[in-house]
Design a protein that fits this description.
heterodimer, A: about 160 residues, alpha/beta, 5-stranded parallel β-sheet, 5 strands, globular, B: about 80 residues, alpha+beta, Translation Initiation Factor IF3, 4-stranded mixed β-sheet, 4 strands, about 30% helix
Chain lengths: ~160, ~80
Amino acid sequence: MSEKKLAIIATKGSLDWAYPPFILASTAAALGYEVEIFCTFYGLQLLRKNMDLKVTSLGNPGMPMPMPMPVLLQALPGMQSMMTMMMKQKMKSKGVASLEELRELCIEAEVRLVACQMTVDLFDFNTSDFIDGIEYGGAATFFEFAGESDITLFV
Amino acid sequence: MADFDQELDASGLNCPLPILRAKKALAALSAGQVLHIIATDPGSVKDFEAFAKQTGNELVESREEGGKFHFLMKKN
C-alpha cells in the first residue's frame, strides 16, 4: 500500500477547535497516512508547552448550553473559565481524549508539526514557548508537503 | 466467539481512541494473530470496518452483545 499524505492547516486556538486537527491527524496516522499539521495564527496554541485552551459561547450561538443564558451574562468575568471547566468535565465523562493525550499520540505517530514562522514572530513567541521536535517554516514549506498530499484541510 | 491472541478493552473510550489503541495493539502482534477489541462507542462499528478496509487488516467478526461491541481483527 503506497503511503497517502494528509496536510492540515490549523488556525484556531480554542479548546473545541483544537480537536479536529489532532483527531484527524492521529487517526490518519493510524491508517498509514503521512501527516503534517501547519499551525498558523491562533493555531500556534496547539504547539505550546502548556496548551491551557479555553472554550467560549460568545459569538457562537450554536454552542449547546445547559440552560438558556443572555449573551451579556455569558460575557461576565469568570464565565469563560466556568464553561471551559464544564466542557472538560463533559468530555471526560464521555470518554473523549484530552488534547494533551491526542497531541502525544500524534507525536508518537510521527505527525509533523510545523509552526508558521511569520505568526511566531508576529505574536512575539519564543521557540521555548513551544514543545520540542517541531519545525518552523512559511507558506512555501506548507506547499512542499501539501503539493504532494492526497488530502488538504483548513481548520 | 472465535479464538484470539490478545484482548483490548476500549470500553468508555470515544472516537478516535478505540482505533488508535487498536492500531497500537496490532503493532505488537505478528501477522495472522487476532486482536479482540471491546468498545462501547457506537461509532466504532463503522470505524473498525473502515480501519480494516484501509489498513488491510481483516475484520473477522463484528457483533454487539450486552450493550458492548466486540471486534475480531486479524493482523495482515
